[in-house]
Amino acid sequence: MLKNFDYSRRVKVEYETDVLVAGGGPAGLCAAIAAARCGAKTMLIEKNGFCGGMATAGLVAPFMTCYDSGGELMLIRGLFEEIVDRLVERGGAIHPSLVETSSAFTSYITDGHIHVTPFKAETLKLVADELLAEAGVKVLYHTSFLDVETEGDIITRAIIHKKDGLSAVEAKIYVDCTGDADMAAAAGVPYELGNNGKMQPATMFFRIANVDSSKIDEDIEKNRDKFRRVNGVNYRSLHWWVSKAREAGDWTLDRVSIGLFRGVDEDEWSINTSRIMDIDGTDSESLTRAETIGRRQVDEIFRFLKKYVPGCENARLVASGSTIGIRETRHIEGIRKLTVEDILDCRVPDDSILLAANSVDVHGKFGPLSNEYITIPPGKYYGVPYGCLVPVGIKNLLVAGRSISADSDAAGAIRVMPPCMGLGQAAGVAAALCAESRTEPAVCDMQKLRQRLIEQKVYLQ
Ligand SMILES: Cc1cc2nc3c(=O)[nH]c(=O)nc-3n(C[C@H](O)[C@H](O)[C@H](O)COP(=O)(O)OP(=O)(O)OC[C@H]3O[C@@H](n4cnc5c(N)ncnc54)[C@H](O)[C@@H]3O)c2cc1C
Known about the structure:
The chain is an alpha+beta fold.
């Protein structure tokens, strides 16, 4: 029988700050740097021992496109571009301008994958630390956001869990970049979980090395005419080997092809193929199931690669993600909502804080094998209005990253890392402006916000 009980503790307010950012993934990293660069006293808490979120802990790569759909104009710039430039300087990324579509770097996919950015997770961890330190952000790793105290519609304190126990932070403005909108949910902001409770499948990413990449290229070239889409299912890279393995009883997964993305090093690849349905990334029981199934799937895929795929005979498993990849959980209710129609009609509202052209990419929408993938018309892009970062109901909170106010399909487009970084940068600047002027994010001065973003090299036309 389940029992409830009340639990109370005396908690010390150890930190006071202008802006508190929870979660140091692509969105939170950029939010914290941007806020601090605007002069706000800024603190970042992150449950891992490093920043990057899915980009580091999840081993997700590459950064999806930052260009318009024709591949002519680099749209997502600002902090994203600065981070890429630092990575490139250290040999930890290939600049997207040099990466062609339909190549090993894009898993040989043509649509929507122009100018992606291969990068090394280890270099990103280092660059993130450097940029945060240079901006003067107070960073606290191994620290989880736990709860909020509210007075009416204001958050007065965030309760955090440090290694050494419970503690509290008082901030003027709170920025939720947990990916799951943990802080917004704790504060009572309404949200939708996935699409009416149904969320995109989870995936355990992994990396392999010691691959003879030229043999993979050759095999793909030989079989490129076999790429096809049938009943919502994409038959892409290596599906000819997957069907052979299935016939031999060596393949049990709900995937028909392999998502394989070459990394910065010539012999290294990221594998995005495992698929775990019906996972709720806000529930530890469900996450535990995903992790264990994910690792089993990695083992099966790795054995398949070594046995069937030319060039992978001597491959080494470098690592699987230290966390399962979660594509979708909560979408908060904001004062504006990004819809899939806004995206496909390429609407650019006056209060846009980010321009992007990422495709609508919803895995498993019509069953485990399927993918919905809708690209933006050539040369076009859409804008994300500021109000999507502003939750209803709480007056000193902003939300950035994959959990902004958007319908599930629209979130399927802006959930990738470059837009999440752009959303984080916008939230950080808005938080700093609001903390400085003691205004609520809902009435943030749009002209000032866009001007500051442009000064921080964000492309807004
Ligand atoms: C399988 C998979 C494949 C993908 N493929 C690509 C791709 O090829 N290219 C691409 O660009 N994007 C891809 N994405 C999308 C992208 O990785 C994520 O959507 C993006 O990282 C979201 O950024 P975020 O900052 O909102 O959240 P996250 O990256 O999830 O970061 C959230 C951060 O908050 C921290 N956190 C969470 N809860 C708490 C808490 N309570 N307290 C403290 N810290 C907390 C986490 O540790 C994490 O560091 C993929 C995603 C998945 C899952």
